[in-house]
Amino acid sequence: MKKYTMNEINLKQFIFTIYKTQIGIGVLSLPRDLAETAGTDGWLALVLGWLLAVLFSVIIIKVMEKHPNDSLFDLFPKVFGRWLGGLFTLLWILYTAFSATIAMISSIHIIQVWILPNAKEYVLMPLFIIPVYMATKQGVRVIGRFAEFVFLFTLWMPMILFLTLQESNWLNLFPIGQKGWMPILTTVKATVLSFLGFEVAFMLYPFLQDKKSAVKGVFIANTMSMLIFMLITICSYVRFSQDVIMEYVYPTLNLLKLIRLPILERFEIIFLPFYLFILFMTVIPYLYMSVFGISRMLGKPDHRPYLRLIILGWLVMPFFFTPSFSEITGLGKLWGNVGLCAAVLFPIFLWVYQGIFRKLRKGALR
Question: Which of 2, 53, 99, 232 could form a Cys-Cys staple with 286, CB 3.0–4.6 A?
Answer without folding.
Answer: 99
